[in-house]
Amino acid sequence: MNFPEHLTGLRNLSKTDIDDIFELTGIFKKKIISKEPLEKVLGGKSVINMFFENSTRTRTSFEFAEKKLGMDVVNFNESGSSLSKGESFTDTLKNIEAMKFDFAVVRHPDSGIITVFRDLTSSRIINAGDGINEHPTQGLLDLYTLQEEFGSLKNLNVCIVGNICHSRVALSNIFGLLKFGVNVSVCGPVPFIPGYIEGLGVSVYTDIDNAVKNNDVLNILRVQTERDASALLPSLTEYSRHYCITKERLRLNPKIKILHPGPMNINVEIDYEASVSADSLIFNQVTNGLAVKCALFTLMSKTDF
Questions:
Q1: Residue 228: what pLDDT?
Q2: Whose CA, among 76, 107, 139, 197, lies 20 to 30 Å from 170?
Q3: pTM metric for this prediction
């Protein structure tokens, strides 16, 4: 199988690559749901998780997948590393390279830095989120969740709602969904909608109620205050008043399903009742994320399962 050596983004994966991931994801998910022990198919392989930004779901699911597959796992902590003593970033990577890890899972606040890791190490690189560029494993688990729910993605209507201009999740979803023939749109206040977005083949809603009525799925994004997104708004209260996905708002379309990559800011972009409603696939996404990562490591290792 000619599967890519690195996962830098969904823009670089073919539909066939994604189909291969999903086929294996289904096998792993059945075992995860039943709590059946996985074969340690990657015993002897090593991985370093290098997270330069905080994370709960992504970091935990990566580490859990790695250990389920039998990998030797090392977690890199920036604050406890020699970077805090003045060592350059390049020298840190050179030292990591000297230890010859098979894989490096990287999350970093700078867009595009994944290529630096790829060029300075011999490890197989998995992008766990780089700046406002891409978050490919989140995109994969979102697509898998929708395929699992609807059976087919073709001609599905999916609207990504919220802080599009700061969202690596939005871009990975867009690149992935379009490969499967999905009708993709975005919705949010004007400052949150990047000017290039329609050039990607995406339509734009300005009215959230119309977005709810005309779509099968909403993928709801939080306002990323750590990237100064709130500076683009009059207030979070005003944003919530116009764009918060509430249980009441979902009644406009009884068949709609909702996703959220987490973490959720309850009563900002979504209320609690909507997040736990029958319309919500949010916690399915988390389970699917673990299965996707198991599939991804197996395929990237060229390992039979």
A1: 56
A2: 76
A3: 0.95
